[in-house]
Amino acid sequence: MNITLRVWRQANAASQGRMVTYQVQDVSEDMSFLEMLDLLNEDLTVKGEEPVAFDHDCREGICGMCGVVINGTAHGRGNSPVATTTCQLHMRSFSDGAVIDVEPWRAGSFPVIKDLVVNRSAFDRIIQAGGFVSVSTGAAPEAHANAVSKLKADRAFDAATCIGCGACVAACPNHSGMLFAAAKITHLAMLPQGQPERPLRIKKMVAAHDEEGFGGCTNIGECAAVCPKEIPLDVIGQLNRDLLASLFKRDGK
Amino acid sequence: MATTSKTLPGADFFTLGAEIADTKAPAGPIEKKWSQRKFGAKLVNPANRRKMTVIIVGTGLAGGAAAASLGEAGYNVLNFCYQDSPRRAHSIAAQGGINAAKNYRNDNDSVYRLFYDTVKGGDYRARETNVYRLAEISANIIDQCVAQGVPFAREYSGLLDNRSFGGVQVQRTFYARGQTGQQLLIGAYQALERQVAAGTVKNYTRNEMLEVIVADGRARGIVTRDLVTGEIETYLGDAVVLATGGYGNVFYLSTNAMGSNVTAAWRAHRKGAYMANPCYTQIHPTCIPVHGDSQSKLTLMSESLRNDGRIWVPKRVEDCDKDPRDIAEEDRDYYLERIYPSFGNLVPRDIASRQAKNMCDEGRGVGPAVKEFDHDGNEVHVRRGVYLDFAEAIERLGKDEVAARYGNLFDMYAQITGEKPYEAPMRIYPAVHYVMGGLWVDYDLMSSIQGLYVAGEANFSDHGANRLGASALMQGLGDGYFVLPNTINDYLADSAKFDKIDESHPAVVEALADVKGRVEKLLAIQGTRSVDSFHKELGHIMWEYCGMERTEEGLQIAIAKIDKLNEEFWSNVKVTGVNEDFNQALEKAGRVADFIELGRLLCVDALHRRESCGGHFRAESQTEEGEALRDDDQFLYAAAWEYTGEGAKPVLHKEPLVYEAIELKQRSYK
Amino acid sequence: MALTGLLLIGFLLMHMFGNFKMFLGEEAFNHYAGWLKGETPDGGILYPILPAGAFIWVFRTVLVAAVLLHVYSALTLWQRAKAATPSSYQAKRTLSQTYSARTMRWGGVILAGVLIFHLAQFTVHSALTAGSFGATYADSPYKMFVGEFQQWWMVALYAIWMATVAMHVRHGFWSAFATLGANTSPKAQTVLNACAWAAAILLYIGFIFAPVAVLFGWIH
Questions:
Q1: CA A175, CA A216: separation in Å to the nearest integer?
Q2: Is A237 close to C178, i.e. CB distance below 8 A?
Q3: Is residue B590 classed as helix, strand or coil in its secondary structure?
Q4: Which of A223, B10, B46, C102 is geometrically suited to a Cys-Cys bond with B608, CB 3.0 to 4.6 A?
Q5: How many CB pairs under 8 A join A and C?
Q6: Any CB–CB contact under 8 A between A35 and chain B?
Q7: For B444-458, how does the pLDDT look when each residue is reduced to its tens digit (9 = 90+)?
Q8: Cβ–Cβ below 8 Å for C179 and A241
Q9: C95 and A244: CB-CB below 8 Å?
């Protein structure tokens, strides 16, 4: 199949970007979306033009490195019932002759580095604010010292599957990072190991989230709709509940 | 006892050097060695630790765990990764689980049994002392991870669930659905970010290490390229840790991440670190097959699929294009059941992989034909896939039960191939998955360069010639959380006596100039071929001649082809753009150049080891039934290769393998 | 946002029930209006806890404060969202955003505009369109209500306005409870959204009922 791509090209953070149109020939429907971009880049390289920069690494949907907006939806999920990362999107989802728009995540907290590559280090700083259990190596009790009820363990796991790709922020009309922060908060809030630091953790993480310039959550749900790991919207409800509770609790209590 | 007076195979390609021995493991009974080593190691006063800088390259299970633990101990840690966040290291992609000798199932598991299984699984080519220590600390790893909030699978009792894995006879594998690696890595990442917040660890993301600085015989720093700005910088410290993963991407197509590379390890090798057993590569039989020339990576599916799926190819070549459901039962060749009637589809990984290749070589593969080149360089198209059929299992167990057992794998297959695995057989093909070889390290995980430590998949120490399932995660975390933080102090304790070093030291100036020179050289070639095309060609050579089955003749062809490819690379590669920019072509160019050099050494190692063991199968060394045949008389050693210069023959140092706690046996599948 | 929003929804429900007194006749409705203002012989609502006539001012103060806080919060969120949006997508598709959610901000502005007219009309009596209070309507809120809504276009205006209110409530109700931490499971999400729809529909029907009754002459 042959594809017309309109790709966002931007030399660096400081420069203006624009959409540039490319034709990609001989695309196989078995290719992943990123392999189609590889094909474009091979073509550009041989012609002596600069290839399109895009982030990617594991290409099996787990590292969270890849992520572009395809035809207006993060990771190109569109109406598909199957959640996906960009690397797991395959060209069979498109028809021959399709015109495909490819853009980077657009959010103030994720400045563009080049073309489709953005800087997501704000996420790391949210985790640094408190997204951990303070247990140093060697200080752990026996693993069976704390039992965790099955449903709580499952909910913790569901939240913990977040891959930190940033699709939630890209899709959110407010460019809020709440789903990301809430996933970590819910993960640790469901486990006994996360309890001692729970009230302080949420205050610090929400403060860090706001400081990074993410928008506020208005409970619209675009984030959960594009999340490749299907983190449910209700983790944000958990975050809100914990945040309210933390206001009535002394730090460290 | 390992050295014989006979000339070793492939002797034209290397010279023999002095034997080496691991001098750090104390004498005495194996179960006392680790505690004795810890007691014997010199200590660093907590107040002095913050004055010492440890550079850690890599943020996966080994690197992330080490950086967090050393930060907690109070050292000043500089931590580097090429990805945009430490959380993206490829440890994240591990699916199955992590072993630990907890014996929660009361099924006779013990530290000794885990140790025994690992050495035996490694086909008696692992270093006994290291493996025992790994088994010993395995239980602590689980405790640590649970305390961090890693959501392992639990039962309704609220206690941790275990499953069996990789053919061992006990249930000792802890898991978190099919995402164990992800959850363990996030645990280490959180611990790491906690230390970043505490100010003990500084993270340098999107930074690639391009050289190690060795001054006065000690590793004292690294040279990196900032992948965003292109700035080439030096970082200095008291010790350097490489936790940079495996080099499976030397085969181009593998289950590794696209960015996984050998550059850090190879640069260290060129500076004097020995590379051990590079030919030990693990090829996993149940991966989703290649769809065409544009394939960029392969995806693994858990080998548990072989428990209920039946593997077959058509008996006749002309049936290969047919819908598999239209091929009559008598026209199918269930080749594993035919060749290995007692094991059937559950033969070990290496055999399952090799037979799939044989079937496809015979022309009876299925699925799309992939472009390849034969020995004479002619383009041929070969179907690379065999059927994995669940029709009988669905009939026997019902679709629901099959979905309950394998649903997520079927979904994954459907998403990648667009096929319907419940209705038609899946197609699978083996793929490179893990490398047991790596930089040589002693019991303390120190390489042959003083102060250069190597952890995780990047070192060679624990898996011998073959790795058991669910052991990679154990080793990465074991090295990072518990081994390195208890051995590196022995070296750092003397750091006050190290020579002073700063940016003007000749070794620093030279390393910086080397890196800059190399980048300029790559950019100046301006040939006609893309970096990827070289990488693909290297991959084809490696897979064809040094893949699942290796022969003397094939390896010699491979070495000649790699030499030619290397020459062409340095005269005809096209790297677009400039250094002072985010330039992915330039990143890849440096990595591929190193892969080419490593590929050659890998072939030399494979050529010299004329025995079959674990993941290394030499056609010349097999039993009548086609099983791997070890040659303990000649090859009971780890091969540590010393770099001697571009174009110069590497020197082979043998480290004899001594088995005191375990009896050496021929591995048997009967 | 959530607290003030819920307070205002509470007020709307009370206001709606008050309007139903239109069906009980002129005396009942006028008595109710006077009672709220402390003009009835018994001293009105909450007398003698509060002096007669004090309640209405406390009530109005709370409402005004709620509205102002609500607007302030909305503007802050709007500002943060703008700051977090450096450039917009060339192509953008939404997947789960409802029309109500999308129109919260501009819908809120329109809604507030009509609210000012509504207050000028029925509270301050400066924007009455069919007569004037005291002269035409003879000090009777009941007569004022009937007089104004006998004009079909006034009923149409309020029908449209109430639609914007209902939409605002539809997303606002759900969003407020989500913000207050009530949404912690998929089931809670379903229930909250159902309640939001119910509140929005109830308010719409409840408010539009009396004006429509006037228009069709059931109340006169």
A1: 8
A2: yes
A3: helix
A4: B10
A5: 128
A6: yes
A7: 999 999 999 999 999
A8: no
A9: no
Task: Give the architecture (CATH level 2) of A121-247.
Answer: Orthogonal Bundle (1.10)
What ipTM is given for this predicted complex? Answer: 0.98
Separation of alpha carbons B513 and B519, rounded Å:
10
Task: Give residue B44's Cα distance to chain centre.
Answer: 32
pLDDT in tens, B374-429: 777 788 899 999 999 999 999 999 999 888 788 888 988 999 999 999 999 999 99
Whether there are 3 or more C-beta pairs closer than 8 Å between C and A is: yes
**C65 — contact with chain A (CB < 8 Å)?**
no
Task: Tokens for A123, please give them.
Answer: 């996420």
Q: Which H/E stretch holds residue A73?
A: strand A73-74
- Binary contact (B147, A141; C-beta < 8 A): yes
> How many Å apart are CA B135 and CA B662, to the nearest integer?
14
Beta bridge partners of B574: B530
- Please state the domain extents for chain A: 3-113, 121-247
- C172 Cα to chain A: minimum distance (Å): 9
Quick: pLDDT tens for B315-349. 999 999 999 999 999 999 999 999 888 778 887 77
Give the span between the Cα atoms of B341 and C202, in whole angstroms.
73
| Whether the Cβ atoms of residue C171 and residue C100 lie closer than 8 Å to each other | yes
Q: Domain for residue C186, yes or no? A: yes
Q: What is the pLDDT of residue B669?
A: 55
For B154, phi and psi rounded to 5 degrees?
Answer: -130, 160
> In angstroms, rounded to a whole number, what is the distance separating the alpha carbons of residues C197 and C12?
15
Q: Measure the N-to-C terminal CA separation of chain B; round to a whole number of Å.
A: 29
pLDDT band at B167 (very low <50, low <70, confident <90, very high): low
Q: Which two tokens stand for residue B132?
A: 């025992």
Q: How far apart are CA B637 and CA B613, in angstroms?
A: 12
Class of domain A3-113: alpha beta
| Count of structural domains, chain C | 1
C179 contacts in A (CB within 8 Å)? 217, 219, 240
